[in-house]
Every structure is written in structure tokens, then in C-alpha cells.
Design brief:
heterodimer; A: Glutathione S-transferase Yfyf (Class Pi), Chain A, domain 2; 2 domains; four-stranded parallel beta sheet; B: alpha/beta; Rossmann fold; five-stranded parallel beta sheet
């Protein structure tokens, strides 16, 4: 199975381990990724709040390239990229005039509609049975808080993929690894990514609340599918320690890393050692009677 | 044949875009037209008199009126024609308003079109046959479906006028949702106190036959002549013997197996139960699904204690048929269950509010039961989870209403009022408690309604927050309600002890099935459609079937009662004469041509086509042909278009008439 891949800027920098673990896991599951050649910015962050046309043109350039490359489906592992690509494509293709205008801006013909997938849809596409079949490690002593953030399932009218208020699709995937998922309250709450650079205090407060709620509800680890969420929830824990004296380290993993662990890949192979908060999977203590 | 043409200006409605004098002038030259004139208001008294005078003066045989839609004034002009001696079916209307002036702006083109339209009508009227109205008898009995306040009111009104009523209620008792309410707005009088005397009145009324725990299975016939089949569900109690002593109910050992639906699942009920103490009729029902006897064949405690030997385990559902002339549908509403997994795919639910997950997140009817003196807490303000008195209660309006993305686009109309009432009742019972109401707008139109809401805010200190709630979750034993105050432009977080959701009023889940059984139209939400939103609000489009209460759209008690009385009046109008007059615009089969394929029967939306045997004098069946029931046929013409051998014709719209119209173009 060959799937189009739009890495996005984070995958090449701050979230390099997301890229590493994604490629390794997809490979392990018997599929391969075909990266869009000459891909460019998806239009997230500044473009879509400053200029609608620019944002759509940026996203649609990548869609058009994917079409030229003969791809029908495309995975955008970053939730922000996913959201931009899905929304821009919807906006652009729903009106003939907009499509023509965008085509003239990017000087490329948009040949076809591309099915854009987020990380969960990618696993759905590859097949949950493949994850179960390839499982070599049962992560049964892990209690996982699945964090969706704001963009992964939204806008629901366009993504049509999970309940935007009470999503459960990530839990489904996590359960395949044998891990338990916790019922918690902050799985959709804002991590503050929009203010990442300008109002660090707000980001700290919001991200801290998310981690606290996950802990309170019995989670040992949090799983995310967005590099921005990960940055705020992982990297900022040092600052949280300064701000909130009783803050204790709480590991935050990418969904790909959790699946990679269950497929038998090591923490190092998956790039988990690049996180600010260390995580090492501990096997459950073997009961004496079993020996 | 001498034809008169009358072109109406309809004030400016037609005259603005159609040059009426030019139309009248052009029409005067059509073959057969003896007189052609225009006038400002043809429907007015002088206008009608003009038509009558011209008919007499020119000895006209038929007339064509170029005016508004025949829906509007066909009757008016027919009446005028009749009084001047012309058969009403020799009057044709050319619709120059809806079909011409209102939809065009080019005066010249519109005038040309008006001339064409009138010409078509002239050609048609030349081929029209004089028809006479059909008379059908009337059964002066009424079926009322639904025993809520609307059904009760309608039944009492019809019965008090001296006509028999059959009242069918699917629950074991009449009373409906109103019997569940604690107090009613805007007067705060006790719902049961005003309702139960009515319920008893129904039960004791000599003209009312109450069929409780029964459902309508089949409706046949037509206005004035319906035959209704009703399923009487087995109570497993002999109704004629039971005195309603209630001993079986108190002695039944099954205590915690079935939720009490009257208490909105806030309490349990035994396997043999009466929904509530004031039930009418006060006869219990045995619930087969939880009764021990049906599972193990043992127990029979109820049999042992019943002094009247009224328990009948073997009792089966029975069918009853009733002949009625009118049907009043008053099946009411249901509250939108905002559970995570809604039964209907159209409903996306409000999982983020945690209804069904948190015991203290309840809906409006559950709050009514908690506030009710006869409820599970005997009127004490205690929350369902632990029975503690909630010190902070959040009320959320418009849950499912006015929400196109997740619920329904309509306004449920009564929630603003009952939420104000709920908050008020809460404050009256918990003086040191805090009540918050999240609202979008406050819609309190109605006598003393706005004053009532102001009283909640100003006298009882209920805090109103304009904005929506995004989510509710539990933290340290509190329900964290996160919302937005859109006036202050600030997020609001309230740690509540209990949350009450004013969920949307929706149609009964079986509403569309019943509509199909009766043959009445309903909207996409399952609410029944009235014949005209303004001028015929209590009639359905099916003759003889009337609507009352919340089955038509969300409404409160006074409105439901008003509608019920109106529906009763409409039924009584029907009973005012012994025979009903019907328009003769119906299909008629040419039996000599009919090949008996019965395609017409398959397509008829009113089930008006029957099979008739053509027999010789000796009783030998020669062939079977279609036969159109005059009472049922609504003259839609579907059969005439379907018939492969052209052997059905619609009176007033036969092929000759239609072709003449087309040829005139």
C-alpha cells in the first residue's frame, strides 16, 4: 500500500521524532509513504488568519502537486496541516470560481480531489487488524489519556470523522496496543498553541491544566497526534515546574510512538529519547506463580 | 356558447405588471366570448355584482375570471355564478397573479402571458361539463387520539356538545405530560390540581368512551365515514372487576426491576403498577417483561391478594373497531433524549453535557418530578445521585432547539418559560441556593409571561447568563459547567451541584407511523402539518382529521387547550349537517374500457381505487374493473395519468378539456 505523505514543517524540525516514528511504524505495518515532491507550507498559523486566498493557495498547491504525482490519498500527520488541507480543499472545490482563481494563483491545475487523512484515519486505512497482528508487546500496564486538541476532528461538518465534542476514535487505536484508556475531561481543551510565542503565560496555564486533569483521572502517559500540542505539553513542562511548584514530569507521546512500542520498536528507534520528558516502557512485574 | 371574461386588477397586485384593459380587450376577440371587461377588485361586492349582471344581460353560459389563484377566490366566483344561474363548474380561473404578475416585471411580456393564460381558460371552459356536488353521509362520532391535556379538552368539548367521543390513549392512564408537571407558569398553580378533575370528568362522561392502554392500528374510510381499528393492549387485569384498590401494586415483590417512566426514570415501579396515584382509569397494568410469573410461572402474589379475582395472566391484546366521522389527533410530544447514542441518526446528541453519564445532569421533566409534591422526593429539592440538597443549580436553555448543527432548527417555545419557573421553584425551596440560567434569548411572549420571567430575575434573584455552555464535567464532586457570558465577553465557569437541561420538544417517535396510518402529512421533524399555517391551523389536509396540541409543533398548555377547543369546534361544524357536500372533481372509470390492470390502485395515494366485479344477471363474473370510491378520491389525477388505456377521467379535468387548453397556446 502506497500512501501520499505531506510532512509539514514541524516534521522536519521540532517534531522530527514524529516523522521518524511515523515512517518506521508505517513501514512495519507493510505500507509505504510517498512524500509529495517539492511540498511547501500548508498555510497554517499566520496565513489563514491574515489572508484567506493566500491560505487556500498555499494548501492547494500541495494538493495539486499530490494530484500531479498520481496520488489519491494523502496523510497529513500534523493536525494543523490536516485541518488546513481539508478545509482549503473543501472551500476551493465547492465553488468553480474559487477553484479557477486558486489555479491561476498557483499556476497549476488542480486535477482531482485528494482524500486527506489525519493520523487516525491513516491507521484506519492501513487496517486495525495489521496493528493487532504485528503486536509483539502488550502495553497493558499503561493508562493512556488520549488528547485530541482542537483541530484533529474539526471542523466536523467537513472532516465527517468523529464526534467533535466527544471523540473516541483515538481511544480505539490506543486500545489495539493493549493499553487502557482513561475517561478524562480535557481531551479537547485548548493547549494554547495559538499563543505559543506571544503569551507564554496563557499557554503554560492551559497546558498545565490539561496535564493535571489527565493525572487526576489516572493516566500514566498522554498520547497526542499533533506536533503543536506535543511541544506545549512536553517541552513546556520545565517552565511548568518553575511556575507550579508541585508539578511532576508527565510523559507525552505521539500516537505513532505508542504503536511503535507495541510493534516491538525501541524507544530510541522511535525517537522518544528526543522528548524533554523521558519515557521508558516498563514491563509489568511478572507474577511469581507464573515462574 | 356565450362566455364572459372578467379580468381583475387585484388592486395593484395584477395591475402593476399586467395591462388589464389590454387583456380584456384582446380576450373580447376570442371565439365564443360575448363580453370581456376588467375591474379593480373583481372579488368585491360591486365586482361580483358586475359578473352577475353581465351573466344575466348577455345570457352567458360560462365565465372565465382572470384573477388570483383558484385557491383564493374560485369559491367566491363560483358562488356568484350560481346565483346568476350558471353551474359552478362552468367557471374557470386564469391565475394572473401567482402565475403571472407576481413573478414577472416586464409589463408587455406579462400582459401577453396573461392573454395566453386567459385564452387557455376560455378554451377549457368551452369543454367543461356541468357537474353536481356529491353528498356523503356523516357519522356523528369523534375519535380523539391522545389523552393529554389537548385530547382531554377536545373530547370534553365534543362530548359536552352532545356527540359521542372515543378517546384512545396509549399509556395506562390519561393525563399526558401535564400530569407530570409540578406547577404551571405563569400562575404557579399546581398542575395536578387543575388537570385531575378534567381527567375524572372524561372518565365519568356518558358520551365519552375511554380506551386507555390502546393504540390506533388502522384507519379506513373518509371524512364523515371513518372506520378505525384500535388495539387494546392486554393489561392482564379484568377491567370490569378491578376496583383500583391497589393491593396488588403494594404487594408485588418485584421492586427494582423497572424504571418508573412517569417519574422520568428517577424511581422504580413494581411489575404490576398504576403510573401514578391519580391515574384515570385507576386500573393497574402487569408488565410482562419484568413480572416473575411470566419468567418462572411462580409468584402470583397479585392473584393471592386480589379480592376481586381480577388478575388475568393469559389475557391477550384485543381489537376494537369504531365508526367515527371525525378524528382529532392530539398525540403530543416527547423530550429530546440528549444521550450519547441518540436513537435517530438525525440527532447528534450533546455528549459534552454528560446527560446519562452524570446522575445530576437531568432534563426538564425530571426536574418537574423532583419539584412535584407527588414526585420521588415528595417535593423536596434533592438531587438524584445522593439525595443532597443542591446549593448551586445551573439551568441550560435551548439544548437541541435552535441548533441546526446538532439538534433542531426550530424553537421549542416553552423552555424559556419553564426554565424561569424551574429556577423560581428552586429558589422558593432552597432559599440560600444559587440558580443560574444560560440562555440565547428570552422568548416570553404571552399574557403575563414576560412579567413572570422578570419576577424570577428581580424578585427571586435568578442569575441569567446570556451564552452557551460548552461542556460539563465532574471534578471533586462538583459539576464544572463551562460556558460563555456573551454580554460580558468572558468565559464563565460554575461549579454546580445539579444541572437541568431544557431539551428540545420533539415529535413522538411513532408520530410518522401514525400519520401514515391516518393519512396526514407531517414535516421533516415528525410534527403534523396543518392545512394552512394561518387560516386553517387546526385542520390537516385530509378532510375530517383535525390537529390539537404539541403534535403539530411545540406549544404550552394554554395554546394546546385553545387548539383542542378549535379542533373540537371544527368536528362539530362537520356534524352540523346530516350530509356532507363534496366537490365532484373526482376520477371516474370507464368500465367498458378498463382492462383491470389496477395500476391506478397501486398509485392512488388515498387508497380510493377499489376492485369491482362485473357480473352477468346470473352472477357470473365477467371481469374485474377499477372503481373509484367517491368519498375517498381527492381528485389528484394520478390514476388518470397512469392508466395505460385512458379509461379513467378526472371530472372537470378530462383529456378534452386539457388538450383544448394546450391547443390554445
Amino acid at each position: 500500500m502506497k500512501l501520499g505523505y505531506f510532512p509539514g514543517c514541524s516534521q522536519t524540525g521540532t517534531a522530527i521524532e514524529y516523522d521518524i516514528s511515523l515512517r518506521k511504524v508505517v513501514d512495519k505495518l507493510g505500507a509505504s509513504l510517498d512524500e509529495i515532491k517539492d511540498w511547501s507550507c500548508c498555510g497554517a498559523t499566520s496565513a489563514h488568519v491574515t489572508n484567506h486566498k493566500l491560505a487556500n493557495a498555499l494548501a492547494m498547491r500541495n494538493i495539486a502537486l499530490a494530484g500531479k504525482q498520481g496520488l489519491d490519498e494523502l496523510v497529513a500527520p500534523c493536525a494543523a496541516c490536516y485541518n488546513r488541507l481539508v478545509v482549503s480543499q473543501h472551500d476551493t472545490l465547492s465553488r468553480k470560481e474559487t477553484k479557477e482563481e486558486i489555479e491561476s494563483i498557483i499556476e497549476t491545475k488542480i486535477e482531482k480531489e485528494i482524500k486527506v487523512m489525519n493520523l487516525i484515519e491513516l491507521f484506519r486505512k492501513i487496517g486495525y487488524d495489521k496493528i493487532t497482528a504485528g503486536k509483539t508487546k502488550d502495553l497493558k500496564n499503561l493508562n493512556v489519556a488520549c488528547y485530541y486538541g482542537c483541530l484533529l476532528v474539526r471542523p466536523a461538518d467537513i472532516t465527517k470523522f468523529d464526534d467533535p465534542e466527544q471523540p473516541e476514535s483515538m481511544e480505539e487505536v490506543v486500545k489495539l496496543t493493549g493499553a487502557k484508556t482513561v475517561d478524562w475531561n480535557y481531551k479537547l481543551e485548548c493547549c494554547g498553541a495559538g499563543h505559543s510565542l506571544s503569551r507564554r503565560d496563557i499557554v503554560l496555564d492551559l497546558s498545565h491544566k490539561i496535564i493535571e486533569d489527565a493525572k487526576k483521572n489516572g493516566a500514566d502517559v498522554m498520547v497526542v497526534a499533533c506536533p503543536m500540542c506535543h511541544t506545549n505539553l512536553d517541552m513546556r513542562q520545565r517552565a511548568m515546574k518553575r511556575e507550579y511548584k508541585d508539578h511532576k514530569d508527565f510523559p507525552v507521546l505521539y500516537l505513532t510512538e505508542l504503536i511503535g512500542l507495541s510493534l516491538g520498536l525501541s524507544e530510541k528507534e522511535l525517537g522518544i529519547d528526543k522528548h524533554y520528558i523521558n519515557f521508558k516502557y516498563k514491563e509489568p512485574a511478572v507474577e511469581k506463580a507464573a515462574i | 356558447m356565450k362566455i364572459g371574461v372578467f379580468i381583475c386588477h387585484c388592486g395593484e397586485n395584477i395591475g402593476r405588471t399586467v395591462d388589464c384593459p389590454r387583456v380584456a380587450k384582446a380576450c373580447a376577440w376570442f371565439p365564443g366570448v360575448a363580453v370581456s371587461i376588467d375591474y379593480k377588485y373583481m372579488c368585491s361586492d360591486p365586482g361580483q355584482n358586475m359578473i352577475k349582471d353581465e351573466i344575466r344581460k348577455h345570457k352567458l353560459d360560462a365565465i372565465v375570471v382572470g384573477s388570483c389563484s383558484p385557491h383564493m377566490h374560485e369559491k367566491t366566483f363560483r358562488k356568484a355564478a350560481v346565483s346568476a344561474g350558471i353551474n359552478p363548474f362552468l367557471v374557470e380561473i386564469a391565475n394572473l397573479r401567482e402565475h403571472c404578475s407576481w413573478v414577472h416585471d416586464d409589463i408587455d411580456a406579462a400582459t401577453d402571458k396573461a392573454i395566453e393564460l386567459t385564452k387557455m381558460a376560455v378554451e377549457k371552459v368551452k369543454h367543461n361539463q356541468p357537474l353536481t356536488t356529491i353528498e356523503v353521509p356523516v357519522t356523528k362520532r369523534t375519535l380523539v387520539i391522545g389523552g393529554g391535556i389537548a385530547g382531554i379538552q377536545a373530547a370534553l368539548d365534543v362530548a359536552n356538545a352532545g356527540y359521542e367521543v372515543v378517546l384512545v390513549e396509549k399509556e395506562p392512564s390519561i393525563g399526558g405530560h401535564m400530569s407530570q408537571l409540578s406547577e404551571t407558569f405563569p400562575t404557579l398553580d399546581c398542575s395536578q390540581c387543575i388537570l385531575t378533575p378534567r381527567m375524572v370528568e372524561v372518565y365519568q362522561h356518558p358520551k365519552i368512551k375511554l380506551l386507555s392502554y390502546s393504540e390506533v392500528e388502522k384507519v379506513e374510510g373518509f371524512i364523515g365515514n371513518f372506520t378505525v381499528t384500535i388495539r387494546k393492549k392486554a393489561r392482564h387485569i379484568d377491567e370490569t372487576l378491578c376496583t383500583g384498590c391497589g393491593l396488588c401494586v403494594t404487594k408485588c415483590p418485584v421492586k427494582k426491576k423497572a424504571y418508573n417512566s412517569f417519574e422520568e426514570n428517577l424511581a422504580y415501579r413494581p411489575a404490576v403498577y398504576v403510573p401514578f396515584p391519580q391515574a384515570v382509569p385507576n386500573i393497574p397494568v402487569i408488565d410482562e417483561t419484568v413480572c416473575t410469573y411470566y419468567k418462572t410461572g411462580k409468584c402470583q402474589m397479585c392473584v393471592k391478594v386480589c379480592g376481586r379475582e381480577a388478575i388475568r395472566f393469559e389475557q391477550q391484546d384485543t381489537m376494537v373497531t369504531e365508526d367515527v366521522g371525525a378524528i382529532i389527533v392530539a398525540t403530543g410530544y416527547k423530550l429530546y433524549s440528549i444521550d450519547r447514542k441518540p436513537e435517530d441518526s438525525m440527532l447528534k446528541g450533546y455528549g459534552e453535557y454528560g446527560y446519562g453519564k452524570y446522575k445530576d445532569v437531568i432534563d426538564g421533566l425530571q426536574f418537574e418530578r423532583i419539584a412535584s409534591a407527588s414526585g420521588p422526593t415528595e417535593g423536596e429539592m434533592k438531587r438524584p445521585s445522593d439525595g443532597k440538597v443542591p446549593k448551586k443549580v445551573v439551568f441550560i436553555q435551548c439544548v437541541g432547539s435552535r441548533d441546526e448543527s446538532k439538534g433542531f432548527s426550530y424553537c421549542s417555545k416553552i423552555c424559556c418559560m419553564y426554565t424561569a419557573k424551574h429556577a423560581m421553584l428552586y429558589k422558593h425551596k432552597v432559599h440560600d441556593g444559587e440558580a443560574y440560567v444560560f440562555y440565547m434569548d428570552i422568548r416570553s411572549g404571552g399574557k403575563m409571561y414576560e412579567e413572570f420571567v422578570r419576577r424570577a430575575i428581580e424578585e427571586d434573584g435568578v442569575k441569567y447568563v446570556r451564552g452557551r455552555v460548552s461542556k460539563i464535567y465532574e471534578e471533586n464532586g462538583k459539576y464544572i459547567v463551562k460556558g460563555e457570558d456573551t454580554i460580558a465577553g468572558m468565559p464563565v465557569v460554575i461549579d454546580a451541584d445539579m444541572v437541568v437541561l431544557a431539551t428540545a420538544m420533539i415529535a413522538q417517535p411513532e408520530a410518522s407511523d401514525l400519520a401514515q396510518t391516518i393519512g396526514i402529512p407531517y414535516d421533516k421533524y415528525g410534527f403534523y402539518n396543518e392545512a394552512h399555517p394561518k387560516l386553517r391551523p387546526v385542520e390537516s389536509t385530509t378532510g375530517g382529521v383535525f390537529l390539537a396540541g404539541a403534535c403539530q409543533s411545540p406549544k404550552d398548555i394554554p395554546e394546546s387547550v385553545a387548539m383542542a377547543s378549535a379542533a373540537a369546534a371544527k368536528a362539530l361544524v362537520l356534524f352540523g349537517s346530516d350530509k356532507l357536500e363534496r366537490e365532484p372533481v373526482i376520477a371516474k372509470v370507464n368500465e367498458a374500457l378498463c382492462a383491470g390492470c389496477f395500476y391506478c390502485r397501486k398509485v392512488c395515494p388515498y387508497s380510493a381505487v377499489e376492485v369491482r366485479d362485473i357480473v352477468t344477471r346470473d352472477g357470473v363474473v365477467l371481469k374485474q374493473v377499477a372503481y373509484v370510491n367517491e368519498g375517498l378520491c381527492q381528485g389528484c389525477g394520478t390514476c388518470t395519468a397512469t392508466c395505460p388505456s385512458k379509461s379513467i377521467e378526472l371530472a372537470g379535468f378530462n383529456n378534452e378539456e386539457i388538450f383544448a387548453q394546450i391547443a390554445a397556446l
